[in-house]
Structures are given as structure tokens and as C-alpha cells.
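Box S2. Input/output pair 1.
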Amino acid sequence: MAEGEPFCPPQSKSQALLQGSANTPTPGKRRAGSHSKADVRDDMDAPAKSETFAVVAVGASAGGLEAFTQLLHALPGNTGMAFVFIQHLDPKHHSALAELLAKASTMPVVEAKNDTRVEPNHVYVIPPNVNMGIAQRRLHLTPRADLPGLHTPIDFFMHSLAEARNSRSIGVVLRGTAFVVRSSTGGGRP
């Protein structure tokens, strides 16, 4: 990605279909029943002030508790953003991550449940053995597929977030003592 060039997440199949010639209206006109890209974005893109907050995805490996804790200690309770913590968790064990992180934050910290509405100044933590996505300002949990290969819940959520939130999405990957920040508007630092 060139310096200053905006980050563009991979296009979803639904977006690719919507951009096909059958759905491309004449400039300034809309065909009945057709949809623009703005129409398929979730309700978080509405202009109401409460809907314009950023959602920050924070990912870390299984050993990321200390990094998560340090980040939460550094954040004020009124950032105006929502935070979603995604960690590589053992699928067979209960996670106490939400309870542990709640002690480090002035914001409410909860383990995500299916259809949880995302609010600013809140922290949501992925439960074990699921993939988590976001659409229409709600977290959606699906059972982890029992397939060979790597389970990549951080990638899964960040792709979902970039598609749903566009310019109001921020991704942070914590690794060791370093971190990488990516936003849908581009840039980043290792």
C-alpha cells in the first residue's frame, strides 16, 4: 500500500454482485429495486451522531493478556469508541478474559454473546470456540468450524469489521511488546 493511499478491504461477494452492470444506475438516477453500496452498509453508517463512533478491533495471540491489560489501563473511559478484543483461545476451555480485563478498565467489559449491540465506551471480548463478525451494529457469533488448519478469528473479525464499518473501523494487532495499527483510511505502523 502506498503512503497516503486509503486501505480498501477485500470486496465481498455481495458487494461485487451489486457493482455488476445489472445494478449500475445511470448517474443521478436509481433503478427501482436497485441498491447502492451505501444501501447495503449496516445501520452504523447512518448520520446520527451516536452512530458515527469507531469500532476498534484489538487482536492478540493466546499470551496477549498483559498487552490487553496495558492497553486498557492507558485508555480513558470516554473514548467515544467501542473496543472488541479477539484472542486466540483454547476452544475446549472456559475463558476468564472478560473478568480479568474488567479489572483494568473504567469501561464496561463483557464477553460477547450472539446479537450483542455494540455501544461506544464499551469493551467486548470474544468467547472461546467461535468466529465473531459484526453487521448492523451487532456482534454475530458462529461455532468454530472443526476443519484442519489454522483458526484465524482475528482475521475473520477484522474483515467483517472493515466491510461493516468502512471508515469507522480500526484494527490493532498486539504482538509481544510491539503493535500494528491499521485503519480503513490507511496508514499503519509496525
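Box S3. Input/output pair 2.
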Amino acid sequence: MSKHNFVLSSSDHSVAAISESHYCNMPRFIENLHNFESAFEGWDDPDNTKTVHQLISATGAFPVQYETLNLCCGGKSFPVSREVAFYLVQKKLDNLMSKEIDCMVVQCQTCYLMYSDQQKVINEQFNKQYNIPVLLYPQLLGMALGGDPKNDLGLDLNAISLNNLLAKAGINRKI
């Protein structure tokens, strides 16, 4: 038997600490796996997500609806097939280029790496002109809360310059 330090509470969707003296009974855990489905009832439909857009709106930013919103970034296929991954990234970025956007906000590290870091590679390999800044949601939230772009949020480390976005947001500081 192995110790565990936390458990997902199906009643309030939170992580509740439990004492070190509790042990995980693996056969019972496997037997009760079907109970985990009910822990997520009432959450977003993966094919029609709303929570991230609500969180973005809470920062004062305006989320944009677009056709490839639910399209995967292809990051998990990248080690196996760069062609598939680049196709998926290009499809979304092409769609976004036709919209009036200031940046792309993602919540997933893999999406961040694919949409941010791979833009330059795709620009070179496929003669594209992508220059869409990509933020992780915590960076957007930090901007909304007045965090320092460089010292608090690390925006100077982002692959695509955010200076135009910062200026538009009224943050008069270049990074």
C-alpha cells in the first residue's frame, strides 16, 4: 500500500488534505474509478468550453470566438510527426490571422510552446508571417492585477514580443 497526501473531493471539486495515517488501497481505488466521472459533472463540455473565456473576460480582456477554437495544438504528436503538429498549429494561426486579435491566451504549457515557440520555425519553413504574441493565462491575470511585466510575470521571456500588447493595455514599459 502507498501513502497519499491529497484526494479530489467529489462534493466540492476541491483538493482536500488528509492525514498521513491514511493509506491508499489500490484494489479499492481501481474498483471506484467510475466515481471520478461524477466529480466533474457540471464542468465545461470539452467541445463547448466556456470557463476559460469567462476567466479571460474577468481580466478585462475580450475573448474572441473563432472556428478552430477547440483544435488541438498538436504538441503531443510533435515528437512523432512534426508535419502533423505544424499542420495543426498553422491551421489555428491562419484562422487567427483573419481576426482582429492582440494575443492568444492559453492555459496549457504545451499549447504555449507550440503556438509561441514554433511560430518562427513555421514562418521559416512554410514562408508564413505569423507574429501572434502568446500568453499563459496566469500572465494575463498578472497583468490585470498590476504585476510587473518583467519581474513578476516574466513577459520578457516570451518568444514573441509583447510590447504592442503592453502599450495597448496602458502599460508604458517595454520589455
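Caption for Box S3: The chain is about 40% helix and 10% strand. The longest strand covers residues 6-9.
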